[in-house]
Structures are given as structure tokens and as C-alpha cells.
Amino acid sequence: MRLLISQKKVDARLIEKYANLEFEPIPGTGFSWRPVQLVRFLWQQSRGFLKSLSLVRRFKPDAVIGFGGFTSAAFIAAGAFTGLPVVLHEANRVPGRAVRLMGQFARRVYLPPGVSMSRLSDDVVREAALPVRREFRREPTGEARKQLGLEEARRVVVVLGGSQGAAPLNTWARSALDTLTAEGIQVYCVTGQGKGAAEHFDKVSNSGERVRHVFVPFSDQMATLYSAADLVVSRAGAGTLAELMRIGTPAVLVPYPFAADNHQEANAEYFVGQGCGDVLSQEDLGELTRRVRRYFSSGEIRAQFRASFGRVDRTDPVPAMVADLEEIARRDGRGTAILPGTTGLA
Hints:
Layout: E1 2-5, H1 9-14, E2 22-25, H2 35-59, E3 64-66, H3 70-81, E4 86-89, H4 97-102, E5 108-111, E6 125-127, H5 141-147, E7 156-160, H6 167-182, E8 186-190, E9 199-204, E10 210-216, H7 222-228, E11 231-234, H8 238-247, E12 251-253, H9 263-273, E13 277-279, H10 288-297, H11 299-311, H12 318-331, E14 343-345
Parallel strand pairs: 1-2, 3-4, 4-5, 5-6, 7-8, 7-11, 8-10, 11-12, 12-13
Antiparallel strand pairs: 1-14, 3-14, 9-10
Helix pairs in contact: 2-3, 5-7
């Protein structure tokens, strides 16, 4: 099994945790109609396609599986070009360009529950939530807070904006510090790489007690982070929401307003529709502090959110996907099981 990743710094840092897996960076960049970005996109995707062809010929995989985005497009194209079985997984509630384009070549396309693609036949589509890494399990709250340098007995708001961070959420976290400190609420904010150095500091509450706050550019302890939080303030990327669902942590979601096809708003609407949190548009960020304070002041709201996680389907999709993919491999006369990765060849 070999996993293909983007050339982003965040991917390079994350793979350090998984010495037992093999990774290969693939050139690529996001699509844009702007002339300069379009030329860059075409150049990078061409490089990615040629490198992918080289990988296919070198490793002779039995199949390829892609999880959408610009990183997977070139490799999925190379797999289809060489006649390999192609499998796709779309995590967002609005299928992205890569899945829409490459879906016509796929033997199987996994879509979130309730999502459809009109151009695909029923025998190609299966429902499957986004697989979450095995280490995503709820940890004891007090122990998780202690690991993060927070006080075990104090309430916690975690603020994060995805792998790149979100400047508006970082700004809100700073502006809300005094108000949250006054009520004894700790803030742990993941700002994003390149958006400031790590800080650990205390502020004094109305009762004269010191309240700890932490700002870090990056965290690879996400299960610990979600377990420590009473509430998460976050963008609405599919990966983040799948992790929140697995851990069972309520969130106030602020969808990125410039996401392709506005898919983050659709993701957030589904999460909120399951009763697991609240949603607020970026233009209404001035309302966010009041929403957070209302959550902490209302035991009824907290109980409703927590109870919702007990009702929603949080079944791990991996076993069913692996069984299905092995069947595809057998029907194709190939013996190697296909395992999900970021983008993978097996």
C-alpha cells in the first residue's frame, strides 16, 4: 500500500507520525479560471500525471482509490489511462470537480449518506461516510486537558480553521478572550502554520482566578483536542466534521464562504441538521461570542447537543468499504485488497 499526498507542508509534517506507511508527494494545485493560476494548474497537473504514470509502471498496483481534490485527479487519470480499476470517495455534501470529472471512469464511487450524482448509475454508487483514523477515540476529558497544558476542571473552547487555519476565527478568538476569561472559560486556538508563534498565557477572571489560554500554529493531537473541548468553533470541512462526529463534540461552525460550490455550507447544514451543533455565517461573526456564551449558560442546549451524538449513525465505514473493494478486485481478476488512503495505489 502506498499513499499519495500533496506537497503541502502540513502533509509533510503529518506523515512523520506514520513510519509504517509509504508516502509519495504528487505535484498539483487547485483549479482556477484566472489566467496565471490556470496555467499553473495545467502545468502542475501535467507533472502530476506523468509522475503518476511512472508510479503505476514501477509499482504495478491492482487498483487506485482517490479521495477527491487536486492531488488525486492526476493519479486517478493515470489509473484510468492504464486500465486499472478506479475507486473514488467524496466526503463533502457537494461533490467536487475531481469526483464529478473522474466519476465517469470509476468502478465505484462512495458518497455521503443522502448525496447523489445524476450521471452515475446505481451499481456504481455506494453510501459511505468519510473514514477516520483509528486513533480518533474519545479520551477522558480531564486527561486530555492536562496533556494540552490546560486546567482539568475548567471549561474549554477549541478554535480551529482547518489545516491552514482561518484568520477570521483567530481574530475572533483574540477579541473574545476577555469576555471568556471573565466567565472562567479557557481557549485553545489552532491558528495555522505561518500565522504566529505558539503562546501559552494566563488571564485573570472576574473572580480573581487565573485562566489558561493556548494559541498554537499546528496540532497533530486532534482526538485529544476534541476530547478536551466542551465546544469547538471551526470551519466546516468534511474531515473536521467526521472527526467531531466520531469523538462526539458539539461545534459552532463558520463555513468558509469561498469554498468551491459553497460545499462547506452544505456540510454544516447536515451537521446541524443532525442536532450536533450550530452554524453561523462569517459575515455574522459579531454574533459568535453571544452564541458561545449561550451554549455555556444553557444546560438544556448542551444536553441536546450531547444527546444527538447518541442518535446519529457513527458506524466506522472502513470494514464495509474494504469488503466491497476486495470484491471489486476479485471480479477484476486481481487478488490484492484495496485500502483507503488520501490517494492510494494498492
